[in-house]
Design a protein that fits this description.
The complex is a heterodimer of chains A (144) and B (176).
Chain A (H helix, E strand, L loop, with lengths): L1 H10 L2 H7 L1 E12 L10 H9 L6 E6 L2 E5 L4 E5 L3 E11 L2 E9 L5 E10 L5 E6 L4 E8 L1
Antiparallel strand pairs in A: 1-2, 1-3, 1-9, 4-5, 5-6, 6-7, 8-9
Chain B lengths: L2 H6 L2 H9 L5 H13 L1 H18 L8 H17 L10 H7 L3 H22 L4 H5 L4 E8 L4 E6 L6 E6 L10
The chains are: A alpha+beta (144), B mainly alpha (176).
Chain lengths: 144, 176
């Protein structure tokens, strides 16, 4: 029996070890503005929370929901409107919490925002707002 | 009028006072006129309103004697640790937003104290559970462009933490 387990251990593909250190990222890319359009039905829960907190935009439109999986200290990138981009680097995973470095870059690659956050697995997202013409670009970033 | 001209004319203070509901009727009409003409001013006023609303609902912090005894030495350590931050250039937008307005100045000092308390007690394991909630988010650090300003706040009544980057003032046109 011991030999059977030992053999099985050698047969486990190395990708499983990597997967344990991987973080699944999901981003909701939202445009909010004071203009007609209402609330995208897919954003009802998030917008309800934002409105409870005092946000008064009349239009919330879900532009994209990029998602992916990335290993520790590796960079995950996705494109944003107006030639901007988002970079997320998981720097630690511990007790169901993920430490992430989040960067929003401008069209020329300049850093518009560089932040470090700690998210709970399957917990609330961190919400980032950056100016957009017209309105505001809202990113709801979650990790699992 | 371009937004940067509004900023030069002290519009930031006017907008902050407008968002706080502290303007007399005549100045309020003036502020509303500017808001109609300047989309950037509208966004700025909305950001002030959000910040002021959050500050007015900031939770009170009560420490036991034991917690207080551990809290202040850690604050002192953090202040000493942050001395090198003095070498960084000041951010005019943030200074104008928080320091030029007396009421906001007091409010920002209170927020800084609450934020520092949250971070410090969170590290001591005394406060994290209810400041962030079971699904909470902790913001460890934030940095933005030199001319931009940023606010970090938790929405009242929700678990969401928001990192809000305010628009950097438009650059003045180059003189020919």
């Amino acid at each position: 029996m011991f030999l059977l387990f030992a053999a099985a251990a050698f047969l486990v593909p190395p990708s499983i070890g990597w997967a344990q250190g991987a973080v699944a990222l999901k981003v909701q890319v939202i445009r909010a503005a004071d203009q007609p359009g209402g609330v995208d039905p897919r954003l009802q829960a998030l917008v309800r929370d934002l409105q409870k907190g005092g946000f008064k935009f009349s239009m919330y439109k879900l532009l994209d929901t990029p998602q992916g999986s990335v290993g520790l200290n590796q960079t995950w990138r996705t494109a944003l409107p107006e030639n901007r981009s988002l970079e997320v680097v998981p720097t630690a995973i511990q007790s169901g919490q993920h430490d992430l470095t989040v960067r929003v870059l401008g069209p020329t690659g300049q850093g518009l925002l560089n932040t470090k956050v700690r998210l709970r697995s399957a917990g609330a997202p961190v919400v980032v707002g950056v100016p957009l013409q017209p309105g505001v670009l809202i990113l709801a970033i979650s990790a699992n | 009028m371009a937004h940067w001209l509004h900023r030069l004319a002290g519009c930031g203070r006017l907008l902050a006072a407008y968002a706080a509901g502290e303007l007399p009727p005549a100045e309020r009409a003036q502020a509303e006129s500017r808001l109609r003409d300047c989309p950037t001013c509208r966004r700025e006023a909305e950001a002030y309103r959000l910040a002021i609303g959050t500050l007015r609902q900031a939770p009170a912090v009560t420490l036991t004697a034991d917690e207080a005894a551990r809290f202040w030495p850690d604050v002192a350590r953090r202040i000493a640790h942050g001395e090198d931050a003095k070498a960084r250039r000041p951010r005019p937008g943030l200074r104008e937003m928080l320091w030029d307005h007396p009421r906001l100045s007091l409010a920002s000092a209170a927020t800084a104290a609450v934020f520092l308390a949250a971070v410090t007690l969170g590290q001591l394991g005394l406060w994290g559970a209810w400041t962030t909630g079971p699904n909470g988010v902790e913001v460890i650090s934030v940095d933005v462009e030199e001319d931009a300003s940023v606010m970090v706040f938790e929405l009242p009544g929700s678990l969401l933490k928001v990192i809000w980057v305010l628009e950097a003032p438009e650059a003045p046109p180059a003189s020919s």
